[in-house]
Amino acid sequence: MDEPTIPGLTVKTPRTPQQMSADIPAMPVVAMRVMRELADPRTTAKKISDIISVDQAMTSRVLRIANSPVFGVRRKITTVADALVLMGFSAMKGLVITVSTRGIYRHAGMLEQLLWEHSVGSAVASATIARVAGGWPPDEAFVAGLLHDIGRAVFANLYRKDYEVLFQYLYNHNLPRSALVALEERYFGMSHMDVGKMVVAKWNLPEDILAVVSHHHIKSLEDLKALPKPWPVAVVGLADSACRHLGVGMREPDTSGPLYNSPFAEFLKLSAEQVAGILEQTLELFESEKATFEM
Ligand SMILES: [Fe+2]
Ligand SMILES: [Fe+2]
Prior knowledge:
Bound molecules: fe (ii) ion
Structural class: mainly alpha
Oligomer: single chain
Order of helices and strands: HHHHHHHHHHHHHHHHH
Distance between the termini: 40 Å
CATH architecture of the largest domain: Orthogonal Bundle
């Protein structure tokens, strides 16, 4: 670590993987119970709704998001039981994960707010892309989009000032985002993808999310095609690029990376018009719905 030091950076000994994994916040208890119950093939809507209803705050947040046009349910959902019937168990799992994730971004720093907006924007874009490209339920795409950069939120939480210093450095020097990954590895001993994988393991999240968290920075079509789960990675990778181009969750739009001719768009076989339509819908939905996800 004798590279030119970044002024203001204080981290000396980064956490080991074991320490990092121990410091990642646990999933809230109610959410954990719901996830366990949802994994049980004999579960019932009544059992799940009983568990969630114990937690007032979670109940109201789940209902608020369930009614967002992002999820496409047209009837008004007023109870958790309704949500289970109208949206299904898998969508409920997504809602519970979404609500639980918000807590990691809640430390109110400027960076966490931007990261949260980037996550919600990527979630909305992922659901929109899944609707256009098919091949993946939009509610699952939403959650994967929301979580793709969860490792960055954990860094912002645990290294606080230092992660902001890194960010400021990138911004001031106009560096590409690949530089962020290199800086994370150099100063924190691991990338936000590595940390994301630890969150997936600790929270026991599905494999699609693991694929997305691990590979959303992939750069070539060949590498993408070689993955065991290329489709979710392409959907969220495109969503991430779309948000950068739109400037969603960023101080200003960044159009330096590929979008229309990205490996993601190519893999999903989306035309330039389709991608343009996705950008438009994403921006519209994000603007109208971002307050819903402030929770
Ligand atoms: Fe990332
Ligand atoms: Fe991202």
